[in-house]
């Protein structure tokens, strides 16, 4: 059984190179990725192929705007992918990329002050190379820091989302496999309860089967974070369920866990049709994709914290509303 140390070392080596100011991003990526490297990013980036495209389209423009960069990593773990029966290994990193916001990025105006880009990335590692990356990042939160709030009032509260309250999320060393399996089993149970919207229980009863009473749901800009089961139901899950119909079944590209941490991503996670009300928007009659990352911390036999990344810019664009262009005045390609 793998302890995932080689895969972790590869990802950390790539991060170390990418975080150097003035680095050749194409060269750094080429040293660690496969020739047919596949990269998925939030709107307006979408899917990119090859190190050169990722360096030119994402890393170089971002790092020209936000520098010098400081990676403030809160969670790091690895594991075998449950979705393909353990055939693939993935490494997960979550935190913030911090720097001085001194030049425009995606039409977002610079502030000349500290700025935080909240991120989470899943890396698939095969034969000593990173073959695939899903890197999700909260662009609307960066927009709010620049005074360009793209959304209206939130049902919950968004701040600079902190890491785990236990400060033990960086699993650089080998972990007990039994702990990771316990976390993954609990995530499976939670998805079975909540992921299909058809348990027959009240939402509070569903949640109490797998969540701690003082749970924290660290949601994205546009929704926000919420604390305790009672407030989560009131400030997110209840309004969210009420705002959609025709929800598809949950689907993931990768789902894994190590130690007390686990998570998944989907492209998309699910599809649903807005019935009106969600994020103060009207019904559209159009189904839309939710591209999501969820990261969890387990405490005993319950989930205690959950960090969520949702590509809301992409979702609303599928509904005919180009939030990014509307907020920045800068038309951008998909």
How is this structure best described in words?
- 45% of the residues are buried.
- The protein contains 9 helices and 13 strands.
- Strands 7, 8, 9, 10, 11, 12 and 13 form a 7-stranded mixed β-sheet that branches.
- It has helices at residues 5-18, 25-32, 51-65, 139-145, 177-194, 203-210, 229-242, 312-318, 323-328; strands spanning 33-41, 46-49, 66-80, 89-101, 114-126, 129-137, 211-218, 226-227, 244-245, 254-258, 261-274, 288-299, 302-310.
- The protein folds into 2 domains: 5-145, Nuclear Transport Factor 2, Chain: A; 177-328, Roll (Nuclear Transport Factor 2, Chain: A).
- A hairpin with an 8-residue loop joins strand 3 (66-80) and strand 4.
- The longest helix is centred in the middle third of the chain and has 18 residues, at 177-194.
- The chain is an alpha+beta fold and 334 residues long.
Give me the count of strands: 13
Helix-strand pattern: HHEEHEEEEHHHEEHEEEEEHH
**Helix/strand structural class:** alpha+beta
Text of the CATH class of the largest domain? Alpha Beta
Give me the CATH fold name of the largest domain. Nuclear Transport Factor 2, Chain: A
The residue ranges in which pLDDT falls below 50 over 5 or more consecutive positions are none
Biggest sheet statistics:
7 strands, mixed
Total of domains: 2
Short recap of the structure:
This protein has helices at 5-18, 25-32, 51-65, 139-145, 177-194, 203-210, 229-242, 312-318, 323-328, and strands at 33-41, 46-49, 66-80, 89-101, 114-126, 129-137, 211-218, 226-227, 244-245, 254-258, 261-274, 288-299, 302-310. It has 334 residues and is of the alpha+beta class. The strands form 2 sheets. Strands 7, 8, 9, 10, 11, 12 and 13 form a 7-stranded mixed sheet that branches. It has a 6-stranded mixed sheet with strand order 2-1-6-5-4-3.
């Amino acid at each position: 059984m793998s302890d995932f140390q080689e895969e972790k070392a590869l990802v950390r080596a790539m991060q170390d190179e990418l975080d150097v100011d003035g680095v050749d991003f194409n060269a750094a990526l080429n040293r660690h990725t496969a020739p047919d490297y596949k990269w998925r990013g939030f709107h307006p980036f979408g899917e990119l192929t090859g190190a050169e495209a990722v360096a030119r389209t994402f890393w170089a423009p971002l790092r020209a705007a936000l520098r010098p960069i400081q990676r403030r990593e809160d969670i790091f773990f690895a594991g075998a992918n449950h979705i393909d029966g353990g055939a693939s290994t993935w490494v997960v990193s979550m935190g913030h990329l911090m720097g001085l916001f001194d030049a425009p990025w995606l039409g977002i105006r610079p502030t000349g002050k500290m700025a935080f880009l909240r991120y989470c990335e899943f890396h698939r590692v095969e034969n000593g190379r990173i073959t695939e990356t899903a890197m999700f990042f909260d662009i609307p939160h960066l927009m709010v820091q620049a005074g360009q709030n793209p959304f209206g009032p939130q049902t919950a509260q968004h701040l600079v989302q902190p890491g785990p309250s236990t400060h033990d999320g960086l699993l650089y060393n080998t972990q007990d496999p039994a702990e990771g399996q316990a976390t993954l089993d609990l995530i499976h149970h939670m998805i079975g309860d909540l992921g299909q919207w058809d348990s027959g229980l009240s939402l509070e009863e569903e949640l109490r089967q797998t969540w701690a009473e003082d749970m924290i749901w660290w949601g994205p800009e546009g929704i926000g974070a919420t604390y305790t089961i009672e407030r989560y139901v009131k400030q997110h899950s209840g309004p969210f369920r009420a705002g959609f119909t025709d929800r598809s079944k949950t689907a993931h590209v990768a789902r894994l866990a190590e130690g007390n941490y686990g998570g998944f991503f989907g492209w998309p996670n699910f599809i649903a049709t807005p019935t009106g009300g969600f994020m103060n928007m009207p019904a559209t009659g159009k189904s839309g994709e939710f591209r999501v990352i969820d990261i969890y911390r387990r405490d005993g036999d319950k989930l205690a914290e959950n960090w969520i990344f949702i590509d809301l810019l992409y979702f609303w664009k599928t509904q005919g509303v180009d939030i990014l262009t509307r907020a920045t005045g800068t038309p951008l390609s998909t």
